[in-house]
Amino acid sequence: MVQKYQSPVRVYKHPFELIMAAYERRFPTCPLIPMFVASDTVNEYKSEDEAIHVIERRCKLDIDAPRLLKKIAGVDYVYFVQKNSLNRRERTLHIEAYNETFSNRVIINEHCSYTVHPDNEDWTCFEQSASLDIKSFFGFESTVEKIAMKQYTSNIKKGKEIIEYYLKQMEEEGITFVPRWTPPVACKSESSTCHPRRPVSPAINIPESATKEGLSNKEILNTSSSPSEPTAGTPDDKLDADYIKRYLGDLTPMQESCLIRLRQWLQETHKGKIPKDEHILRFLRARDFNIDKAREILCQSLTWRKQHQVDYILDTWNPPQVLQDYYAGGWHHHDKDGRPLYVLRLGQMDTKGLVRALGEEALLRYVLSINEEGLRRCEENTKVFGRPISSWTCLVDLEGLNMRHLWRPGVKALLRIIEVVEANYPETLGRLLILRAPRVFPVLWTLVSPFIDDNTRKKFLIYAGNDYQGPGGLLDYIDKEIIPDFLGGECMCEVPEGGLVPKSLYRTAEELENEDIKLWTETIYQSASVFKGAPHEVLIQIVDASSVITWDFDVCKGDIVFNIFHSKRAPQPPKKDSLGAHSITSPGGNNVQLIDKVWQLGRDYSMVESPLICKEGESVQVRQPEPLWGQMEPKLPVLTHSTDN
């Protein structure tokens, strides 16, 4: 397996030339990197005007590996080749490195670059990427991979420290400015041109007031859209290290790399629909930064959000009055860590009455709106407290919980809500405080806990009776001033008290079923399962010669081939004969085939354009150019045809 690393953009608030002077001090050896024993120059090239300087070094490394492994490998040191290409004119340095030792068994490639900051020419940006591919290593492939990643991660952390160390060293020597490269003065002779070597300018001190004033941190930080408005920057967008630390928290180099690589993949495959960086990070954390697993659940969630228009739920859906009056939950200030605090008086809530009056889907949609509001509040608190806040705290008061709350349809609705929230809002619960748990609580916990992720369960704190008032209780997590009045605090809590839902508001099972269908079918999107030999086809009648047709779909699992066909006659509706070709359906019953098996391509219908292969996880938008439709006669049928690849 190939291990990859991609760094964020690290910004040095110093000019490029000064950074280059500091960088050169790392050679031939660097005391801050004990494993970097020595380096020898093997090739060097300088252009006549000194704008280009290419130097190739052979570096000797003393890898921190078990002595037995070194003995088996038969080496004490590992050698790398590093090629530095400095362009003083363009103010860039590109670094390429690869391993010389064991190159037939292990392939290591590294690419680094120093460039001028796009918004401030007196700042310097650094980026780094690398790959590790271990073909074979005497049966110790896994061990070598761990050692290599450990060493590399350690060196990454030291990279910026080393540059800053040498910058400080230069400052102590009185070197705070290095002049930019300028073209040499040409000779007056028209027949020839001379390139005299420019003398090295002496180092001089420049007062800070004379240097160009840089942009503030706030001005250079990237911002991206929330999950509610899944639009994002272009693939040119890059995360810088300061932004990550300020808005996303302290991540290890490999965690940063996972975030950047998954973000880049989304930018390439989900044009215009990239969720916010902290939302991507939640899915990575939920899968222990396994990119493949995180990508799978994130793509499924993005498709789910799109299909049910969850992105717009706060703007387009108003909770029924019954929920506003009898749902005993609401937001209440924040905890000591700055997390938004949600209070739920579950013991005072008539879950049976709410399910009978509203149905399961309305309750689910209300819980989704609460989660969407939680995401919004996390963003606000991140700005208010000046540190990353990506989750909220939930306080659940079970005073009044009894066997009525274990009503089977109510528990079923609760389990479904937990399942949906776990799948689409991972790592949003920072802490769950369960207070005044009664004797019946273990029964409810036994039913619910198997559906809760292990990482989430670790965040649960359960208090029986009045234990929450003692040491290690509520005061450890919530300031005294905002403890709700119903828990003995002084803060008036505006959370509804709940109570029994009047039976006059109950609705029949048929009414609830129709309402449930209405809630989740208010969308222009449809789902279909596609199998080999059983494509899903959609018929579109072209009634306007100037029409433009756009397809927008997400590939949840597997790869598919998307085709567009044209016919001057409409195909016959699918036959109901269970043995007929048209009766092949997916397990969901939503797979449709329209092209008659006796039709021949090129005679009965034609292919409009080349097939489009769509990979798993991709979000695809296909727009048919207007001129093509303008050439067709009105009311011509067009077939879209998707097959499993």
Automatic annotation (TrEMBL):
Residues 3-175 form the PRELI/MSF1 domain. Residues 521-645 form the GOLD domain. It holds the Pfam family PRELI. This is SEC14 like lipid binding 1. It comes from Taeniopygia guttata. PANTHER family: SEC14 RELATED PROTEIN (PTHR23324), SEC14-LIKE PROTEIN 1 (PTHR23324:SF51). Gene3D superfamilies: CRAL-TRIO lipid binding domain. GO terms for cellular component: cytosol. InterPro entries: CRAL-TRIO_dom, CRAL-TRIO_dom_sf, CRAL/TRIO_N_dom, CRAL/TRIO_N_dom_sf, GOLD_dom, GOLD_dom_sf, PRELI/MSF1_dom, SEC14/CRAL-TRIO_domain. Residues 219-231 have a biased composition (Polar residues). Residues 214-237 are annotated as: Disordered. One of its GO terms (biological process) is negative regulation of RIG-I signaling pathway. GO terms for molecular function: RIG-I binding. Residues 319-495 form the CRAL-TRIO domain.
